[in-house]
Amino acid sequence: MITLGNYSTLKVLRRADHGFYLEGDETTGDILLPNRYAPEGLAIGQEIEVFIYLDQDERIIATTEHPLAKVGEFAGMEVAWVNKYGAFLKWGLMKDLFCPFREQKQRMEVGKHYIVYVKEDEESHRLMATAKVEKYLKNPSDMDEDEPQLKHGDTCDCLIWQKTDLGFKTIINNQFQGQIYDNQIFQPLYSGDRLTAYIDHIRQDGKIDITLQPTGRQHTLDFAEVLLRYLYENDGHCDLSDKSPSELIVDRFKVSKKVYKKAVGDLYRRRLITISNDGIDIV
């Protein structure tokens, strides 16, 4: 089934002056892939993956370009222009994505970035964005039994949503609300950033605490090897001990003091380092 705002793999039926016609279905009919999007060497009978959306004249059209998000996904987008009906967002396609005023939490401004959800308008059936993303986030308890259940230590996709007094709100796996706390952040973060994170704790209210560093024993072992390599590259010495200020540890190694102390302890137990008031030294 071909759906608006999503990807489909379609067969090339014929060529015209303005592009290639791809095999559609009873609802869409044949779909034009304009010449500007057709890869070199595209041939009749070949199958090609395309994104389906509406052009400037509201006709169904195909493109090989990839938008920042498809229907049902969240992304950070910049406002390209505004008119009396709403804002138009840059989402990676020639036609900007419309966000009407009724779907804005505050009046959007040209040049600023906002986290939005892409959907098909129920009335007009046009693709649109909404900044009221909370309406489209799920609770982990609502997952079906046959869906993979989130657990401590799992890797997840993380979209940075907005700054809070505690850290940053995030959107996890394009479904759930998450939180990264300030004491778990060791790099600059900005709304719209996408990065890999790790499940730390699923709270009773359904919100999820995450961390940007792997959790558990494996993270300690991984950083212990990083620290050992640092020692080899710096004449066998590091002037930071397990009693050094956390700010110095974060600044140099981008890990928490807790992780640093565990790694130092691991290397010491393996008799690979000695510990003194001046720091640590390789044996």
What does this molecule look like?
It is a single chain. This protein has helices spanning 217-233, 246-253, 257-269, and strands at 7-16, 19-22, 31-34, 47-54, 60-63, 74-82, 86-90, 97-100, 113-120, 127-130, 155-163, 167-172, 176-181, 194-202, 208-211, 237-238, 273-276, 279-282. It has 283 residues and is mostly beta strands. Strand 1 and strand 2 form a beta hairpin. The model has no long low-confidence stretch (mean pLDDT 89).
Stretches where pLDDT is under 50 for at least 5 consecutive residues are none
Biggest β-sheet description: 5 strands, antiparallel
Helical segment count: 3
Helix/strand/pairing category = mainly beta
End-to-end separation in angstroms reads 65 Å
Helix coverage percent: 10-25%
Task: Output the radius of gyration.
Answer: 25 Å
Globally, the shape reads elongated
Order of helices and strands: EEEEEEEEEEEEEEEHEHHEE
| Count of beta strands | 18
> Strand-residue fraction?
35-45%
pLDDT averaged residue by residue: 89
Q: Could you give the order of strands across the largest sheet?
A: 3-2-1-4-5
Which features does this protein show?
283 residues; mainly beta; five-stranded antiparallel beta sheet; 18 strands; 13% helix; elongated
Summarize this entry quickly.
This protein is mainly β and about 280 residues long. It has helices at about 215-235, 245-255, 255-270; strands spanning about 5-15, 20, 30-35, 45-55, 60-65, 75-80, 85-90, 95-100, 115-120, 125-130, 155-165, 165-170, 175-180, 195-200, 210, 235-240, 275, 280.
List the helices and strands and how they pair.
Blueprint: E1 7-16, E2 19-22, E3 31-34, E4 47-54, E5 60-63, E6 74-82, E7 86-90, E8 97-100, E9 113-120, E10 127-130, E11 155-163, E12 167-172, E13 176-181, E14 194-202, E15 208-211, H1 217-233, E16 237-238, H2 246-253, H3 257-269, E17 273-276, E18 279-282
Parallel strand pairs: 13-15
Antiparallel strand pairs: 1-2, 1-4, 2-3, 4-5, 6-7, 6-9, 7-8, 9-10, 11-12, 11-14, 12-13, 14-15, 16-18, 17-18
